[in-house]
Amino acid sequence: MSTLLLTIESPADLRKLSRAQLATLADELRTYLLNSVAQTGGHLSSNLGTVELTVALHYVFNTPHDRVVWDVGHQTYPHKILTGRRDQMATLRQRHGLSGFPRRDESEFDAFGTAHSSTSISAALGMAIAAQQKGEHRHAIAVIGDGAMTAGMAFEALNNGGVSNARLLVILNDNDMSISPPVGALNRYLAQLMSGQFYAAAKNVGKQVLKGAPPLFELAKRFEEHAKGMVVPATLFEKFGFNYIGPIDGHDLDSLIPTLENLKNLEGPQFLHVVTKKGQGYKLAEADPVAYHGPGKFDPAVGLVPSTVPAKTTFTQVFGQWLCDMAEQDPLLVGITPAMREGSGMVEFHKRFPNRYHDVGIAEQHALTFAAGLACEGVKPVVAIYSTFLQRAYDQVIHDVALQKLPMVLALDRAGIVGADGATHAGLYDIPFLRCVPNVSVDCQADENECRQLLTTAYQQDHCVAVRYPRGAGVGVPVQQSLQGLPFGKGEVRRKTQNKAHGKRIAILAFGTLLYPALKAGDALDATVVNMRWAKPLDTELLAQIAAEHDALVTVEEGAVMGGAGSAVLEALQQLESPKPVLILGVADVFTEHGDPAKLLSELGLDAAGIEASVRKRFAALCV
Ligand SMILES: Cc1ncc(C[n+]2csc(CCOP(=O)(O)OP(=O)(O)O)c2C)c(N)n1
Fold first, then answer.
1. 404: pLDDT confidence band, cut at 50, 70 and 90?
2. Which residues line ligand 1 (CB under 6 A)?
């Protein structure tokens, strides 16, 4: 029974509750959240961990006037439930339903759109400074996880914010987990802070009480230090100019609420360290927060059960297997992931080759330049990175990798439509932003087998090659185990038009997995279909031949049209002085929404029927 929760249509209702009622509300909220995610799938462990923090923040602060910026935003389901979106939770991550992340166009309580990590402190600082400039009295709060805290961007913002006198509160939500166990020196440092918990808590009570009287406060601090018989070093965050409070128990409303209330009255940048447990309150998620980070639908009474239907092999699995097989052959191979071991299919590689596995934290820029350094010394890096997260490391690709012609493989997972995660995670821009960089090649494999073969081809090159493959499974072709590769920069004709009598011929040039719907459309239209395989270098020899033999060309890609593979074809045709008309199919100048990937592709006209319809519309006179 969610008796209290059902009375909360907005945080204003929450603020009418007594302090004593909040624990009950938090319990109801947790149950509602669990049942809701079990029905839709979505992020779970992180949301279970932020229930009390969400209640406390909306209780103490005057949202939406005060701004709360949630880092990554995958932990905002409790926030969505309390901010008028409870009944829409059943539509989470579905087409026209609630987004799985905060969005400014979804609610006035979503102060900032997030999903890529480590932006919260910068955005909240911007809001705090804007309030100052406009003479508005409001608080800006960034809630950031210990995983997200590992990114350089978070530290850039601390560096900037610590010397401001902005009304900025940074809350570090430390659950000692990223998606997988956290890595790096910061993680060790936070563990040290936690181990001094009792002393730190005592110190901070003193600080809060005495803050109003600076000289006495300083005296007390020194006295305290003498009493301990040592001088305790200031925390890293204090060195950055923040007033550090914590660590406190992030599931204890009796700690959270008074602390936040105190912090509200302090001037200047504040840093609150709260400790939470990923999966809190649901035993199965507490025991295995990784599995419950982003589960599909499940029965909460039973938990996750392995599917009885044999699953199709995903591209991620093909990559993971290839990585292990190639590592077996070549002792110089290293695998790098910016905090995405599970998502990138590197669990097995980590297990088998621990010394050649590098999880660098949520640090895409560093991942690329670190790989560049390795490549300088003749080690052979394979950087497994989602297409969308490579956006973070663009200058590193150009300046540190390409300019120095350093060889490496960029295994670009989630290239194309990603489905439920939506626009923030769609990998639609890699072809345009990579193909314009000298010394970088881009291949677009059509199926699982090509994925494995082209990874090998990429690995054999003496420059940077990006291998792009989409989320999920391919058509299910058998995967050859050999590691021979396919010819560099070469496509292949997969279907030849029979339409000799008609005399008007169309060729569809497919880049990537859309080859298969293109083949279907090709059957319906009796068109030639070419598997181009490489967006760069383009197989211009094959293109010249196809252009000469056909009356019209159609390009198909799962990516942004502007500057994409179709544009590459146009550029090449112009060089060849070919006058043939070209229809470019892909994603126009729009952000793709969240929802079922197959439906989204169909909406974008990129399924077989859509491709056929577009061709018939544009080249009506040429169609059979
Ligand atoms: C730039 C970027 N890289 C990678 C990710 C993928 N990602 C989503 S959540 C997450 C872990 C975040 O850990 P933390 O901040 O500690 O939050 P928690 O899930 O533990 O609550 C990662 C790596 C991302 N969202 N953005």
1. very high
2. 46, 49, 72, 74-75, 115-117, 145-148, 175, 177-179, 278, 339, 362, 364, 389, 392
Place of tokens 């809190």: 280
Spatial CA neighbour of 267 closest among 190, 339, 165: 165
Omega before residue 64 within 30° of 0, cis? yes
Alpha-carbon distance of 206 to 204, in angstroms, equals: 5
In tens, the pLDDT along 24-51 reads 999 999 999 999 999 999 999 999 999 9
How many angstroms separate the CA atoms of 532 and 555, rounded? Answer: 10
Nearest CA to ligand 1 atom 16: 147
Whole-angstrom distance, CA of residue 341 vs CA of residue 177:
13
Provide the token pair at 373: 């350094």
Q: What is the pTM assigned to this prediction?
A: 0.94
Tens of pLDDT, residues 124-157 = 999 999 999 999 999 999 999 999 999 999 999 9
Contacts of 78 (CB under 8 A, 6+ apart): 29, 33, 47, 50, 51, 54, 55
Q: How far is the CA of 144 from the centre of ligand 1 (A)?
A: 10
Q: What does DSSP assign to residue 240?
A: T
Spatial CB neighbours of 23, under 8 Å, sequence gap ≥ 6: 253
Token pair of 476, please?
């299910």
> Phi and psi of 232, rounded to 5°?
-80, 130
> What spacing in Å lies between the alpha carbon of 148 and ligand 1's midpoint?
6
Residue 566 Cα to ligand 1 midpoint, Å, equals 33
Q: Within 10 Å of residue 140's Cβ, how many Cβ atoms? A: 29
Classify residue 314 by its DSSP letter: B
Contact present, 260 and 248 (Cβ < 8 Å): no
How many angstroms separate the CA atoms of 81 and 68, rounded? 15
**Residue of the CA atom closest to atom 4 of ligand 1:** 362
Q: Please state, in angstroms and rounded to a whole number, the distance separating the CA atoms of residues 617 and 607.
A: 15
Q: Which residues are catalytic?
A: 278, 364, 392
> pLDDT digit string (tens) for 320-372?
999 999 999 999 999 999 999 999 999 999 999 999 999 999 999 999 999 99
Q: pLDDT tens digits for 296-310?
A: 999 999 999 988 888
SS3 call for 124: helix
Q: Which of 589, 586, 594 is nearest to 610 (CA)?
A: 586
Q: What's the mean per-residue pLDDT of the chain? A: 93
Q: How far is CA 241 from the centre of its chain?
A: 30
Specify whether the CB–CB gap between 444 and 538 falls below 8 A. no
Say whether pLDDT at 204 is over 70: no
Over residues 500-513, the pLDDT tens digits come to 656 679 999 999 99
CA–CA gap between residue 236 and residue 19 (Å, rounded): 33
Q: Would you tell me how many other CB atoms lie within 10 Å of the CB of residue 218? A: 11
State how far the Cα of 103 lies from the Cα of 112, in Å rounded to an integer: 7
Give me the amino acid identity at 504. K
* Chain centre to alpha carbon of residue 329: 31
Residue 501's pLDDT is what?
56
